[in-house]
Amino acid sequence: MPNRSSKTAGSRSESVYSGLRRAIIEQALMPGDKLTEDVIGERFGVSRTIVRAALAKLNAEGLVDLQPNKGATIAQPSLSEAHDIFEARMCLERQVLARLAERITDRDIAMLEQHVALEAKANAHDGAAAIRLAGEFHILLAELSGNGVLARYVDEVVSRCSLILALYSRPHSSDCSINEHQQIIEALRARDAARAMKAMDHHLQAVTERALLSTTSDRHRDIRSILDRYAG
Fold first, then answer.
1. pLDDT tens digits, residue range 160-185?
2. Where is the HTH gntR-type domain (predicted)?
3. How many Å separate Cα 139 from the centre of its chain?
4. pLDDT of residue 9
């Protein structure tokens, strides 16, 4: 029988992992931000051992870099890595749509439409949530495809794309992404795989083009106050 204390430690580590991951996806934590075990432990109310387990999991997903004697930082993908990640993402998402067009149900379409409605609502009031929801639309597509392995890889690559956009993207209207998502839904409603893949190609190409220009960011932000929003 599993030890209760080990289960508790595992759930606490998962809570820290989930909070940090969400902060990264919502671009509250930016590439290059330093993550100290003491600060994370203080904000989440956990030990450094639990923090290390969460950071190791984020490192395995390519979201955090761990350097001996230097600690953890939010990963900073190079432009070459960014190209490779977007290329892999396009291949994965085309496969998702090829599967999904054959099996999608009216209920699935309704779920996708509800999600896009949430994106539109967040776009007007909550920029961080809008960023997260835009990525989660693609993860939902993968989950609906019925292939758990495919969904896991899409989840990882979408998360890494969030880092790329935080590093290199130029300002754009989120309405573009919402409209592009709606076009994908319409193609799936028609059970038209070729049209859906063409819409996805156009969408991801637009996302890639929005990641052309490097932007500078403030490296003196208060990490403690940022983490407070995700430690609940």
1. 988 888 888 655 545 568 999 999 99
2. 10-77
3. 9
4. 66
The answer to whether residues 77 and 85 touch, using CB atoms and an 8 Å cutoff, is yes
Residue with tokens 């992992």: 17
| 84 & 165 share domain | yes
**Pair (152, 174) in one structural domain:** yes
**Between 159 and 176, where is the model more confident?**
159
* Shared domain check, 172 and 128: yes
Whole-angstrom distance, CA of residue 28 vs CA of residue 97 = 30
Rounded (10°) angle between helices 174-189 and 193-209: 170
pLDDT digit string, tens, across residues 116-157: 999 999 988 888 888 889 999 999 999 999 999 999 999 999
- Are 77 and 211 spatial neighbours (Cβ–Cβ below 8 Å)? no
Q: What are phi and psi of 65, to 5 degrees?
A: -100, 135
If you ran DSSP here, which 8-state letter would residue 35 be given? E
**Alpha-carbon gap, residue 57 to 59, rounded angstroms:** 5
Give the structural domain span for 188.
79-209
